[in-house]
């Protein structure tokens, strides 16, 4: 199936479902995250660095680590970085191990971080989740925000579940298992619905 622009995908899904169309009208257009100079690999590095700490702390660590890497994250640079350099950047031991595991698996071909990879979404998830510190949710966010895949349905994401409940007035909020089939009517653009469900958490759609 040929790839289409995000705006066209939003228009297509809104045309199928009046409730979703109202959400789109309320939220307005959404956009992809800007691409970073170090590409998908850099996004994965930043995701690992940001786990379980505040945004401010994460940005400080990422800044120091990037400076030590010459400004860009590459698997070669991280593989060669000493433990001392990583500790001085503020990384915990667990995150150091995760970054080394990621670098090794990119370098040996286990994980393909090419933006033009032909691997399916599930193939990418399966390989990424072999990396220490990367679970299914992180892999799905990577697919949606970095590779810009349009048919990802992160049913385990609390904001997606809550946003779906608010938008379609489902009470109680669907579980991950219950939400999985609810995305089927929106194939092959489930990422669009997921993104808007996340936005819906910040809106009072019941008024």
From TrEMBL:
<comment type="similarity">
    <text>Belongs to the alkylbase DNA glycosidase AlkA family.</text>
</comment>
<dbReference type="InterPro" id="IPR011257">
    <property type="entry name" value="DNA_glycosylase"/>
</dbReference>
<dbReference type="GO" id="GO:0043916">
    <property type="term" value="F:DNA-7-methylguanine glycosylase activity"/>
</dbReference>
<dbReference type="GO" id="GO:0006285">
    <property type="term" value="P:base-excision repair, AP site formation"/>
</dbReference>
<dbReference type="GO" id="GO:0032993">
    <property type="term" value="C:protein-DNA complex"/>
</dbReference>
<feature type="domain" description="HhH-GPD">
    <location>
        <begin position="49"/>
        <end position="199"/>
    </location>
</feature>
<dbReference type="GO" id="GO:0032131">
    <property type="term" value="F:alkylated DNA binding"/>
</dbReference>
<keyword id="KW-0227">DNA damage</keyword>
<keyword id="KW-0234">DNA repair</keyword>
<protein>
    <recommendedName>
        <fullName>DNA-3-methyladenine glycosylase II</fullName>
        <ecNumber>3.2.2.21</ecNumber>
    </recommendedName>
</protein>
<dbReference type="GO" id="GO:0008725">
    <property type="term" value="F:DNA-3-methyladenine glycosylase activity"/>
</dbReference>
<dbReference type="InterPro" id="IPR003265">
    <property type="entry name" value="HhH-GPD_domain"/>
</dbReference>
<dbReference type="InterPro" id="IPR051912">
    <property type="entry name" value="Alkylbase_DNA_Glycosylase/TA"/>
</dbReference>
<dbReference type="Pfam" id="PF00730">
    <property type="entry name" value="HhH-GPD"/>
</dbReference>
<dbReference type="GO" id="GO:0006307">
    <property type="term" value="P:DNA alkylation repair"/>
</dbReference>
